[in-house]
Amino acid sequence: xxxxxxxxxxxLFTIAGLRVSLLAPEVCxxxxxxxxxxxxxxxxxxxxxxxxxxxKYLYEWDLAIDGPTDAPYxxxxxxxxxxxxxxxxxxxxxxxxxxxxxxxxxxxxxxxxNDDVAAVAPTxxxxxxxxxxxxxTVGLVHRRQATGDTTYDTLIRQLGTMMVGQQRPDGSMLNFxxxxxxxxxxxxxxxxxxxxxxxxxxxLHNTWPEEGWDEPAWATLTYIATERDEDEDVWPKPWADQxxxxxxxxxxxxxxxxxxxxxxxxxxxxxxxxxRWESQRNGGIDGLVHAPENIAAGQGTWMEGxxxxxxxxxxxxxxxxxxxxxSDRLACGAGRMIxxxxxxxxxxxxxxxxxxxxxxxxxxxxxxLSGLIFTERLLRERSGERTEETS
Length: 391
Fold this sequence. Notes:
- By secondary structure, this protein is mainly alpha-helical.
- It has helices at 2-19, 33-49, 75-90, 97-108, 130-147, 153-165, 191-207, 214-226, 228-231, 242-250, 258-279, 284-289, 296-315, 323-340, 362-383; strands spanning 60-62, 67-68, 111-113, 118-120, 128-129, 176-178, 183-184, 359-361.
- It has one domain (25-383): Glycosyltransferase.
- It is built from 15 helices and eight strands.
- The strands form three sheets. It has a three-stranded antiparallel β-sheet.
- A hairpin with a 4-residue loop joins β6 (176-178) and β7 (183-184).
- α3 (75-90) runs parallel beside α15, α6 (153-165) packs across α7 and α13 packs antiparallel against α14 (323-340).
- The chain is globular, with a radius of gyration of 22 Å.
- The termini are far apart.
């Protein structure tokens, strides 16, 4: 009898533990085209309204001190934020072209290189990061798509040459380029930059398909799908790389191999689990058993990854069985983030920001804005509407 009671108690505690962790109820706020679009506009407005006259963005704001933090400014995130504004402009929101061009001008003032290659560095003698060049390239391609303006085509190709020059024989990418030696810095890689560069190079091939940008793109995609996690000692595998998701979508019509699709499935599972876990964080005991909440930028990357996986599933039948799952997770993630957005305070540094633990950083607005763009596409498809194109 005592043994039976003991086992019953074990089972009861196990069930209770699951009930407040893995089996806790999900809360996914309703989202609509209207609410999603308004949140995207507010996020973009936070970026623009807090932009300096020289094109630099407010980097991080802390509610506790009601002021900016002393976190050092990050060029890669500047490039990513500018890219997100160009993404929004390419969706028809052309009023954001001017502020994006101001962010671009700030980077152009920091160009290094020569007639063949270009990069962006904090100073003329400092090392340039691969990720900055990659996201600048992506932004310029989106600008080209939004406007038809070919002014920066030479620069785009110079940046592409720099990125391809960072590639090693196995497809991996070196993270730093030295403007003094005009060559890669050996032996230093980056989890983030490799995927960013892959997306940029894939965009170059789709822009100029006769120029051979596909060969280096294939090498890096296969490296990411099959070797990177081991080389970088990643756990859990695979690294939840939304830049790889952008790349897979960009390369969807090239003829992806089964190993690339297998990678896409395992990659998307990371964002599905992360979004579900976040949707179960609803206070009380549920809140106690969950890990600290991810920053807004991190949650935004889940939305970006799911948005790209959903669109990839529409293009590749091997993922078609997951399209609805991607859609549901994306909508849930968007609803959760919209609920975190501060509005109506009358304070320019706060309104439109996504605050987690009282702090927002510029890339929080960047990544969530991109994710909301993809959520709005989903909701318009569901309602049979066309994507809004307004200035």
